[in-house]
Amino acid sequence: MFNKNKIKREKYDIGANIIVIFFAICSLFPLYWLVTSSFKNSVDVVKMPPDWFPKSFTLSNYVDVFNNQPAFKWAYNSIVVSLVATLALLIVSAMAAYAFSKLRFKGKNIIFIIFISSLMIPKEVMIVPLFRIIQDFGMVNTLSGMIWPNVATAFGVFLLKGFFDSIPDSLREAAKMDGASEFRIFFTIMLPLVKPGLGALFILNFVNVWNDYLWQLVVGQSETSKTLMVGIATLMQDLNPNFAYKMAGATVGAIPMLIIFVLFQKYFTRGITIGSDK
């Protein structure tokens, strides 16, 4: 009976793995088509039936992107905006989540509910008033105008509060009895324990800010303040489009996302797993 159950479970695992692999291939195929098309000629990209593998391998599309367009400047702006905004978000969200989770103050639950309810408001609704605020501060056409509106978000506080809630209060009380200050408890004890949550939030917010095309388009109106997403979008406005050229630009925009995911994959997986367990 035990052998039969074991064989049945192994068959189930094999079938489940086949299904997972199939959907993984389907999910990765657009990325494969994007990268391979960037090494083709424009005519080969749109021809039917398509060439699943490039017959004429060329790097001219990437050369044209970096020679004809300020792609390095776009990439630099995107990296600065995404990295600074995400690091600032981690600090602000972690401190706010710790306060909501471990500190006691009047109206804490009401303030938290009001704060989290802002998740239901689409960012597009706040574009006009947010732009007026940035304009009054003189941050239009600057990287600062793209960074600071992305620093304080309710999602980051909501995500990290769940991790802080899972830490026993006795740990904080023991540190208080040993004479540790609140900032020392937070930075030396609590933050290392929520490292998986910080890693998951880093990936999610970095990708969100990197792909925040609408806000970056509204704020970065000058050539020097354009980000990679906005710059690549300008490549799509040609009357006689070179599709391979555009594929190369889109590939350049996707590479940093792949690098970030590979570097923080361990923390992202652990963060999602811990969150699902709770």
Q: How would you sum up this structure, described in words?
A:
The protein has helices at residues 2-37, 42-46, 60-68, 71-102, 108-117, 127-136, 143-147, 154-165, 169-177, 182-193, 195-210, 213-219, 228-234, 243-277. By secondary structure, the protein is mainly alpha-helical. The longest helix has 36 residues, at 2-37. The chain starts with a helix and ends with a helix. The model has no long low-confidence stretch (mean pLDDT 82).
Classify the helix fraction into a percent range. Answer: over 70%
Order of helices and strands: HHHHHHHHHHHHHH
H/I helix tally? 14
Kindly report how far apart the N and C termini lie.
35 Å
Structural class: mainly alpha
Report the major sheet.
none
